């Protein structure tokens, strides 16, 4: 991995103003519009050649974070630097070049493909948009991308429509569409969650092979910690728009430091319930109550209303994401791990 991070993100925010049924802004007690804080002051780095997993329950902001990184959404505030340059300073041409280098694979293979486009048209479209190659070269790259995505022989798929493909084949077409422009960075947003269990393992192996073959840097987004444990070098845990734990996957999974991470791991189904979750001897921790309203977040630590370890300090202060042990950061006053797993 290079010394210079591929991405350096600082204080990134994405807020959505809340409107009432009449389309008017909801106001707080200060008369200011209320906002849903989908991503709230998030800072991290992604190194060249690594896979960073992002986990958390639905609505935690992980998909929004991925879309912000590839400029599918405009940030409310903060800064995203790609190879040392802030994306906010990009010209129109630089933004287009960035979008060639940074691609995304969406969750739903049934909605992310144009039903009227053949496989060949779908995978070739990014080449046309970016003006890459002549007709012959484009056909070669389409076949190579399909082959790398596990659709072999590619000639058997070129003229098929999405309706003629299985869910796994559709997702492989989506992956080929992302690969065809030879990107540096790939966001995989819940790419196996809608696939049969038998196909999920194949797609995970595919991502692992692609990372090695193409030296891809990836952000792998999932609510399933078992897939992140298999694939990711580092893991980021999000809760209500904030990062609560970030570090080497082995440490985060085997010896969680944040109470929310601990609770997430307790919820992972096990084939043998008597074994408990993988890599730990801890007893189950209970999450109390429901997820707070993301528009009206609790004071202090946003997890405190559900945390069995919370004290008055957790109500009064919001913990920063601070260094915890070697290579790991945790946003908690009372970590549940001793560190150095």
TrEMBL record:
This is Oligopeptide ABC transporter ATP-binding protein. It holds the Pfam family oligo_HPY. The keyword Metal-binding does not apply. It comes from the Archaea. Residues 7-265 form the ABC transporter domain. GO terms for biological process: peptide transport; transmembrane transport. InterPro entries: AAA+_ATPase (IPR003593), ABC_transp_ATP-bind (IPR050319), ABC_transporter-like_ATP-bd (IPR003439), ABC_transporter-like_CS (IPR017871), Oligopep_ABC_C (IPR013563), P-loop_NTPase (IPR027417). Keywords: ATP-binding, Nucleotide-binding, Transport. PANTHER family: ABC TRANSPORTER, ATP-BINDING PROTEIN, TRANSPORT ATP-BINDING PROTEIN.
């Amino acid at each position: 991995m290079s010394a210079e991070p591929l991405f350096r993100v600082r204080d990134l925010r994405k807020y959505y103003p809340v409107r009432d049924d009449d389309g008017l802004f909801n106001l707080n007690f200060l008369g200011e519009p209320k906002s849903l804080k989908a991503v709230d002051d998030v800072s991290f780095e992604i190194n060249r050649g690594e896979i960073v997993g992002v986990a958390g329950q639905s609505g935690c902001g992980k998909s929004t974070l991925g879309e912000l990184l590839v400029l599918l959404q405009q940030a409310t505030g903060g800064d995203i630097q790609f190879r040392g340059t802030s994306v906010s300073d990009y010209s129109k041409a630089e933004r287009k070049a960035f979008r060639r280098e940074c691609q995304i694979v969406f969750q739903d293979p049934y909605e992310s493909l144009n039903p009227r486009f053949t496989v060949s048209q779908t995978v070739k479209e990014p080449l046309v948009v970016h003006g890459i190659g002549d007709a012959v070269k484009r056909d070669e790259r389409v076949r190579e991308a399909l082959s790398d995505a596990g659709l072999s022989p590619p000639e058997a798929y070129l003229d098929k429509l999405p309706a003629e493909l299985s869910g796994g084949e559709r997702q492989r077409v989506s992956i080929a569409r992302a690969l065809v422009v030879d990107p540096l960075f790939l966001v995989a947003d819940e790419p196996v969650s809608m696939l049969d269990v038998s196909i999920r393992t194949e797609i995970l192996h595919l991502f692992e092979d692609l990372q090695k073959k193409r030296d891809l840097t990836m952000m792998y987004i999932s609510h399933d910690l078992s897939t992140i444990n298999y694939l990711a070098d580092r893991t980021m845990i999000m809760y209500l728009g904030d990062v609560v734990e970030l570090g080497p996957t082995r440490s985060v999974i085997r010896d969680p430091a944040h109470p929310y991470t601990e609770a997430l791991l307790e919820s992972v189904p096990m084939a043998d319930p008597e074994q408990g979750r993988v890599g730990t001897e801890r007893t189950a921790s209970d999450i109390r109550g429901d997820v707070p309203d993301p528009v009206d977040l609790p004071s202090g630590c946003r997890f405190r209303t559900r945390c069995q370890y919370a004290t008055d300090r957790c109500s009064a202060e919001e913990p920063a994401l601070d260094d915890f042990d070697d290579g790991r950061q945790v946003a908690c006053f009372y970590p549940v791990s001793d560190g150095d797993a």
